[in-house]
Amino acid sequence: MRRLMTLMVCFQIFSGGVSAEVFQLETDLKIVLPQLAAPWSASTEPPPAMVEHLVEHVLEEAAQKGTLLSTDQARQVALKRAMNNQLFVANEDSGAHLLISFSRLEKGETAPSAKTVAQSAQYALESVADEGWSVISRRQATTVIKGAEFAQWVSIEYTQDEEHSLFNGIVGFASPYWFWFYATDHLKNPHDQKFLEGLLLKIGVQVAVEKAG
After folding, report:
1. Which three-class secondary structure state does DSSP give residue 33?
2. Using one digit for the tens of pLDDT, what is the confidence trace for 25-35?
3. Residue 167 forms beta bridges with which residues?
4. What pTM was computed for the model?
5. Which domains does the chain possess?
6. Helix crossing, 48-64 with 71-82: angle to 10°?
7. Environment class of residue 129 by beta-carbon count within 10 Å: exposed (0-12), middle (13-18) or buried (19+)?
């Protein structure tokens, strides 16, 4: 089982007295989200609907390679992929979701510059071909995330398996962590796009600073 502590606290943190939820992902790392209302929810475990969607893709990939997998085997692969993320925000009704993941710098690894973060975001834009997406449009811009040194916003409108979707993501760095916020909207609910775009920019990153001595 992952060593992952979750702390959900409601308190007055945003201007205007808006309540928030805090998730402690590591001993020195917290994520702050505005308090969510149904049908949206946040969890450190992947939503069942997302897992089942991944299971279908795993089975399709296996079939294309001529590999025979049982549904249980495909589910194990799907769960492993999903758990590369540390926090999940999802609308279970529409399937729209936000994946949040962090990666700590290795010992001796140099912190990225603003240019390096921008290059990483550019790579994320270009790598969509590996996902089998047919890109309609894509954009990239510098953005600001509370608690982060650098952040880049990317947006991709695409089709996959004849399904029209919208991807919005933020690639950034909050020392000593790289982070990725990846939101996918399958356009099933007209309110999801605005919600996800707003949510991405309201996320706060809190990294505890070690005290000298």
Report:
1. strand
2. 999 999 999 99
3. 156, 184
4. 0.84
5. 12-46+83-207 (3.40.1000.10)
6. 120
7. exposed
